[in-house]
What we know:
Radius of gyration: 35 Å
Strand content: 15-25%
Shape: globular
Strand order of the largest sheet: 11-10-16-7-8-15-12-13
Number of strands: 30
Number of helices: 29
Amino acid sequence: xxxxxxxxxxxxxxxxxxxxxxxxxxxxxxxxxxxxxxxxxxxxxxxxxxxxxxxxxxxxxxxxxxxxxxxxxxxxxxxxxxxxxxxxxxxxxxxxxxxxxxxxxxxxxxxxxxxxxxxxxxxxxxxxxxxxxxxxxxxxxxxxxxxxxxxxxxxxxxxxxxxxxxxxxxxxxxxxxxxxxxxxxxxxxxxxxxxxxxxxxxxxxxxxxxxxxxxxxxxxxxxxxxxxxxxxxxxxxxxxxxxxxxxxxxxxxxxxxxxxxxxxxxxxxxxxxxxxxxxxxxxxxxxxxxxxxxxxxxxxxxxxxxxxxxxxxxxxxxxxxxxxxxxxxxxxxxxxxxxxxxxxxxxxxxxxxxxxxxxxxxxxxxxxxxxxxxxxxxxxxxxxxxxxxxxxxxxxxxxxxxxxxxxxxxxxxxxxxxxxxxxxxxxxxxxxxxxxxxxxxxxxxxxxxxxxxxxxxxxxxxxxxxxxxxxxxxxxxxxxxxxxxxxxxxxxxxxxxxxxxxxxxxxxxxxxxxxxxxxxxxxxxxxxxxxxxxxxxxxxxxxxxxxxxxxxxxxxxxxxxxxxxxxxxxxxxxxxxxxxxxxxxxxxxxxxxxxxxxxxxxxxxxxxxxxxxxxxxxxxxxxxxxxxxxxxxxxxxxxxxxxxxxxxxxxxxxxxxxxxxxxxxxxxxxxxxxxxxxxxxxxxxxxxxxxxxxxxxxxxxxxxxxxxxxxxxxxxxxxxxxxxxxxxxxxxxxxxxxxxxxxxxxxxxxxxxxxxxxxxxxxxxxxxxxxxxxxxxxxxxxxxxxxxxxxxxxxxxxxxxxxxxxxxxxxxxxxxxxxxxxxxxxxxxxxxxxxxxxxxxxxxx
Length: 845
């Protein structure tokens, strides 16, 4: 399956091709030549036999058969056609000897490279070598779909046998429909149902549509072609692999997005509205890809790859095309690992904005098409309303901006911001060690108190650093975790939940083995995750955790808490409820409503006691409503505070919040008018302020993203490489000599903010000898305390209180101030220092 080729000269060959040529010329067996043309085989010209030898004597002139019979013929052709002594007569002799059909104008062309390309492409055409390799090695669609069954059909278990009536059709068994689709896909049958997968959206210009194809202006989503000057002439074609059935123009099909879940859909016969992530479309035109152009076809049956025009508004990047209605159709290729890998490799983020407000609509449409056309790109709108383009590198970003300007939004003048870098905020506790974060660190952390504006609710909490490895694991699972929390019964999702718990246990085991006191750390956090976990954040699943071990008077645990406990511990989500106890020791100490009601009943008279007994259930319901409202406020506040921290409103990372105590004033009446507003809103504000205050007490630190850089450089360029990496705050991880060469491979970690322009500067400083490859790595802790000031006696002796040199050179402080300036936040800095002191400049006359 190996093809030897030269792209610059336009030729390619396989060993089998030269085996045919040599067998015909020398009368040798083709099967023997196919086995011996590559490897340590030599042709003995005296005995005319092929010999096998692993080693040859030093100074021996014996050449392997590949060199003797293949490469030397190519070298001779190069010398005769493009050598220093090449003439038109020699080129003509080569053409006649090889029995090639090459136009005379190409043979006698004064440019030898042009003649070489014409002769070599006629002798060893690329198309023949590639197509022969494809035909002989690539399996047919019938065989390939069976070999790739686990990827093509990601549904290992049969669904429940229920009757589903979809879109007005008669009721059909979901299990029967499942088996029908599975057999059709694996057998690659041309019979219904239609099952296809859109792998990507390809941008094509109008010039690439041949005259046989209908005008693309007739297709949906292409109205902008006639909208006047500056309209886009680029159209998106959905590249579709048909796995079963046949697609024809005029067919009505369903388009299922990546988030479509058939098991969450019931009967849809009485409703004309389609379920989420499902749309209906009519196939207008089909195209077959013919090199750079496309040709219209009437049918695309199973096993073919075709293009569908007019699905711009229905498909973002990937989708499943099927004739099976929703609730019965099971999608193809639900590969979330690939999208997660792409998201982790998006290094460069920039904001684009039009120079004139009239171009905002065209720019939005262009960004949408750019996002659809590039699988390794993401465009989105951030919380500040900026339109962001996230690319894998500077060269990728440059190409995307050029495509946006020339293809997708022509005529729109837009501006590009400097690269945007995301940061994170964390705490280190009293230990200062990001790895040693166990119960001892928890006991050393201070308790922070918070109280609502009306004084009805008070809570005490601790902000504790979460182990970095646990936070990294949760962060890597964030996208998948949110999907699992929202999943509703798909068998593949249940398998992923089991895999999540297994990987979490494996992460704890590796943590336990890598640290001296890892057993105590693992025991502490494993118990907390199993028993007291309430929420992960931000966005319901992330590297921050909320814990609460209190027994609260609730009739039912919030659904989000139950789902999260079921995902982490593996128990039944409904049965995992917080106990509805009367008065536990914790609630008595916390002063919950039970204690207050009991004290009031003891002091009341007989008539009052009877009235209280009558009003008992109503009072109990009001109490439960107050607690439910407060818990919802706490859960919402946790999601908000993990999204924006106290330093510069960046998301939190590796932060755990422990609720130690919750108190509700027994005299609080929820039905009365409150001048401070809704209780849940007050809880949100006060809980956020308490967590932020706890972070400032627990040693806040900034975390910055890093880039993993791998550079291959010569020994002479190592000094310049090390100087450049040191200047950009890089850390050398590994330096290794490539065996058999004089080149070194240097692996380093560089902050993302320092990596912009690294490629160009490195090439320039090493005279082009070093070329880096970059990939997003991890979050690195900025060790400096942003609030450091000289306090001890030694520090005051070295630095006076009014000496701000070291404070202003604090890296963490400078990063925080720059982020706050970009966001328009308040910056606490002195603009004028010692305004009463005047400096007189001496001028020489």
